[in-house]
Amino acid sequence: MADQPGEAPKLIIDSDWKSQAQAEKERLDAKAAEAGKKSQVPQELKFDDLVGLLASQAMSYMGYFPDPQTGKAMVALDYAKLHIDLLGVLEEKTKNNLSPEEQESLGKTLMQLREDFVHLTKAVAKAVQEGKMKPMGGGGIGGVGGAGAGGVGGGVIAP
Fold first, then answer.
1. What is the pLDDT of residues 73-107, one digit of tens each?
2. What does the alpha-carbon distance between residue 33 and residue 40 come to, in Å, rounded to a whole number?
3. Taking a C-beta distance cutoff of 8 angstroms, is the pair 62, 117 a contact?
4. What is the DSSP code (8-state) at residue 65?
5. Quick check: 113 and 59 in contact, CB under 8 A?
6. CB-side neighbour CA atoms (13 Å) of 107
């Protein structure tokens, strides 16, 4: 504070506070670095792991795996198509950058998922039409079901 009018205020710097703050910063940095080491994935992830993840999501939405809570298979064609389309984007963006084995694996996976999707879309439309399955509300992303699935875009469950 200024003692006299017109005199500049005096700054009192607590060097003890600065050293405490620096020590706390170093302690937190060390703790964050240790936490980062613990949370790292223990294995090396590969391209096939990404393909497998997206494929399993597509398969899940095509009813390959039952819902763990209800035990019933659920079909969500719009979400299945989303994951298949993501694999298609991956294929397009990685063209000429994959090993021959990776390219073949991705191509075969996509071909099989697309084929299964077309067959499933037709089967779901027929089953809904015959009353063997009932559409659930929703629709989620984009309305995939329009043309091929007789308007079934969201989820469908077996009775």
1. 788 999 999 999 999 999 999 999 999 999 999 99
2. 11
3. yes
4. E
5. yes
6. 9
- pLDDT tens, residue by residue, 98-107: 999 999 999 9
| Tokens of residue 26, six digits | 């170093």
Helix (H, G, I), strand (E, B) or coil at 135: strand
Query: What three-state secondary structure class fits 93?
Result: helix
Q: Which of 25, 69, 28 is nearest to 157 (CA)?
A: 69
Instruction: Give CA separation, 103 vs 57, 62, 78, in Å.
Output: 20, 24, 26
CB neighbour class for 11 (10 Å; exposed up to 12, middle 13-18, buried from 19): exposed
* DSSP H/E element including 134: strand 134-135
Q: Which two tokens stand for residue 96?
A: 């000429």
In this structure, what DSSP letter does residue 72 have? -
CA–CA gap between residue 14 and residue 141 (Å, rounded) = 58
What does the DSSP 8-state code read for residue 4? S
pTM, two decimal places: 0.61
Amino acid at 89: V
